[in-house]
Amino acid sequence: MKLFYTSTSPFVRKCLVVAHELGLAARIDTEMLRPSPLEPSPVLTRVNPLNKIPALVTDEGCVLYDSHVICEYLAHLAGGDAIVPPPGPARWTTLRRHALADGILEAAVLVFYERLNRPSELWWQPWLDGQRTKALQGLDALEAEATELGDGFDLGHIAAAATLGWLEFRDVLGDIRSPRPRLFAWYDRVLARPSMQATLPRA
Q1: Does residue 36 surpass a pLDDT of 90?
Q2: How many domains does the chain have?
């Protein structure tokens, strides 16, 4: 398999953590790209017309995107239900938590790119504040259920961990750690996992 990736992307990291957790990392070759909203990558566009990473080319030549689809595919390859539980309450909790983490990321990424690519005098502050509020509310929701995260590490946990890692790496929202001690106590524990250490974001 071949994964088109960027080393700083939390969506890519989520897929790579899943691959490591499932023992599939050695089967995946990677190609580093740096697409941006302002500068599409022609290499990536040939694979994914949306010009977004990650994109995975399977052994059969099928191209998969986005990160959720790739993670589901890797879980299918590995068999079992270690990453995505079978239908039932545990599965819906996992998928809901995954959606929450991705929603936090999507709002924060919009803030990041607005500040990165647009001159500061053109920033639309009410819009930035709205995206920041959504991301912080999502983090507060994770804090509220932090004691329920337990010792497992399914797709919902992985998405939450990748989200927290990127937010601290990019410092998009300011201090997110101090107001959420239970969430970050959990995060610091899972950060020691080999899959998390092998996928640390690097600028």
Answers
A1: no
A2: 2
